[in-house]
Hints:
The chain has one domain. Helix content is 65%, strand content 0%. The protein is elongated. The protein is an all-alpha fold. It has two helices and no strands. The chain has helices at 8-22, 26-45.
Amino acid sequence: MVKIVWTEMSIEDLKEIFEYISEDSIRYATITVDKIYLRAQVISDNPYIGWSPR
C-alpha cells in the first residue's frame, strides 16, 4: 500500500473545485470531490494499477 500525502495545496485545490461546482450544485460538488478522494484511495491500495511492463 502506498501512502497518499494530501498537501495544503492539494486540499486547497479540492476546496476550490468544490466551491466552483457548488455554485451550480452542492450535490454534484460533493460527488466530484468524493470521487477524487476515492480514486486516490484506489491508487493507494493498488499502486501498480494501469502499469504495463514493456
